[in-house]
Design brief:
Elements lengths: L1 E3 L3 H11 L2 E3 L11 E3 L1 H20 L4 E4 L7 H7 L1 H4 L1 E6 L6 E3 L14 H4 L22 E4 L3 E4 L7 E4 L5 H6 L1 H7 L6 E10 L14 E11 L4 H18 L7 E5 L11 E9 L5 E12 L1 H10 L2 H6 L23 E3 L4 E3 L2 E8 H12 E5 L4 E5 L10 E5 L6 H12 L5 E3 L5 H11 L3 E5 L1 H6 L1 E6 L5 E5 L3 H9 L2
Parallel strand pairs: 4-10, 20-21, 20-22
Antiparallel strand pairs: 1-18, 2-3, 5-6, 5-7, 8-9, 10-11, 11-17, 12-13, 13-14, 14-17, 15-16, 18-19, 22-23, 23-24
Helix pairs in contact: 2-11, 3-9
């Protein structure tokens, strides 16, 4: 009988012990909300990203990839609205001076304060402080900008304030015309990107679920206005299927539509793919958002391009820059698209599936973990989909004698160019199986006394623990078929 993960603390401990994820700068006491991926975690996260890239880029004819710079011209963030609007309302406890997002504090009934209108009246509510437990003693909510700022340039006269990007999407919008001009893509088409983003979050929680440095897997899919609802439904179905195809239990997934007062100012519609994480009693939390962004971003950047001259005249002061207003001819601008067949020009609408690589990795960790009560003992196991498993196959000699280690090493060297492999000779073979189960290795190959007689080995499958006798010269093809590689 298998037991699933009930507390996130158990996973955090296992991830550290087995080398999946470590606290960043731990030898110096750690840095809040920053994490390092260890040897197994780096492989797992890379496999998640590779599976996403294969699904949305490699296997499609209407998608190309991009890798944009983290640092961008500050006018990009002015045009996108981030300079003026990308902030959380925060409130400060007058007793201990800790700051919290206003909408994360709860009233006397435990209801979360949602939305700016309620948050503005937070000081009149009874809200126990999460740490010092004071009641209703908070400052008025105030905006807190989430973008990290830094200075670019060595000299005072040519330096400027730039930002670590808070999302990868704007790099795609800024390169939309470059992609059209340099490829044969035509609307409808998409641009995909995987990259780091940075947000100076006020409230962080739950391991790698919410961090200040994180990685996004993001698509901007450009389509003709009027076809956007069709593509919106397409991407909702496509993205949900991706998670279930990679082994996520459908019972732990759901889609939640945003209410009208929850939608971003640019969005026509938005749905969250949510996973039931073991936070507290089990909370539904966002894995990725799928939004219909209309033509908002391309329109804004088209107007922003006209503001470049005034920006330099204002001594690079982004705060004082006003983005040029739209006029009736904005469809004729440089970021519009001309349909040769229909003989018309328009600014495309955009459907944006935006997933978190870190959140996805956490969901796959949680969903794959189980503790099984066996007849004689207990085993912890990660039932990763083979495409995601950090190690695909482990190779053992049954004992360290009679030429078995040498033969096992020969098989290991033959498999290593094709699969990520482990070679293990330490301890009893049963313990080695358990070690591989605990890191999610799908197959173990064991060289034993019979190998020298008939050139066969035992291949043991992780989930069923069944063992199959395979000829040495067929191990590679057997594993390739099972692993779908």
């Amino acid at each position: 009988m298998a037991e699933t993960l009930e507390k996130l603390d158990d996973l955090v401990s296992l991830c550290k012990r087995r080398g999946f994820i470590f606290q960043s700068s731990e030898i110096y006491g750690g840095l809040a909300s920053c994490y390092d991926y260890g040897p197994l975690g780096a492989e797992l996260k890379r496999n998640v990203k590779n599976a996403w890239w294969k699904s949305v880029v490699q296997m499609r004819d209407d998608m190309v990839g991009l890798d944009c710079s983290i640092l961008m011209h500050p006018l990009v963030w002015k045009a996108s609205g981030h300079v003026d609007k990308f902030a959380d309302l925060i409130t400060e406890c007058k007793k201990c001076n800790s700051r919290f997002r206003a909408d994360h504090l709860a009233d006397e009934n435990g209801n979360t304060m949602e939305g700016a209108s309620k948050a503005e009246h937070l000081k009149d509510k009874i809200c126990p402080h999460p740490k010092c437990k004071c009641v209703g003693d908070f400052t008025d909510p105030m905006p807190f900008r989430l973008m990290f700022e830094t200075q670019m340039g060595a000299n005072a006269d040519d330096s400027m304030t730039v930002y670590l990007r808070p999302e990868t999407a704007q790099g795609i919008f800024a390169n939309y015309k470059n992609v059209l001009d340099s490829t044969r893509m035509k609307v409808p088409f998409g641009i995909a990107q995987i990259g780091k983003s940075f947000r100076n979050e006020v409230t962080t929680k739950a391991f790698i679920f919410r961090t200040r440095e994180f990685e996004q897997m993001e698509i901007e899919f450009f389509c003709e206005p009027g076809t956007d609802e069709q593509w919106y439904e397409h991407w909702k179905e496509h993205r949900m299927k991706w998670y279930t195809d990679l082994g996520i239990n459908p019972d732990n997934l759901r889609m939640r539509d945003h209410a009208s007062d929850e939608l971003a100012h640019y969005a026509k519609g938005c749905v969250d793919v949510e996973y039931k994480f073991p936070f507290g009693q089990g909370d539904w939390q966002e894995l990725e958002g799928i939004a219909n962004r209309t033509d908002y971003d391309l329109r804004r950047h088209q107007c922003g391009m006209r503001s470049t001259t005034s920006w330099f005249e204002n001594n690079r002061d982004t705060e004082k820059t006003t983005i040029a207003t739209e006029n009736e001819d904005y469809h004729k601008g440089p970021l519009s698209f001309f349909d040769d067949q229909a003989k018309k020009r328009y600014i495309p609408y955009v459907i944006e599936p935006s997933a978190g690589a870190d959140r996805g990795t956490l969901a796959f960790l949680v969903d794959a973990y189980a503790v099984e009560q066996l007849e004689k003992d207990t085993r912890s196991v990660f039932r990763f989909h083979p495409k995601l498993a950090p190690v695909k196959v482990a190779v053992f000699p049954l004992v360290k004698k009679d030429g078995m280690p040498e033969k096992a090493k020969e098989i290991y060297d033959d498999l290593k160019p094709h699969f990520n492999c482990n070679f293990d000779v330490k301890g009893a073979v049963g313990r080695r199986y358990r070690r591989q189960d605990e890191i999610g290795t799908p197959f173990c190959v064991t060289v034993d006394g019979q190998t020298a007689e008939d050139q066969t080995v035992t291949v043991r499958e992780r989930d069923s623990m069944e063992q199959t006798r395979i000829s040495v010269d067929k191990v590679k093809s057997y594993l390739r078929e099972k692993l779908d590689m």
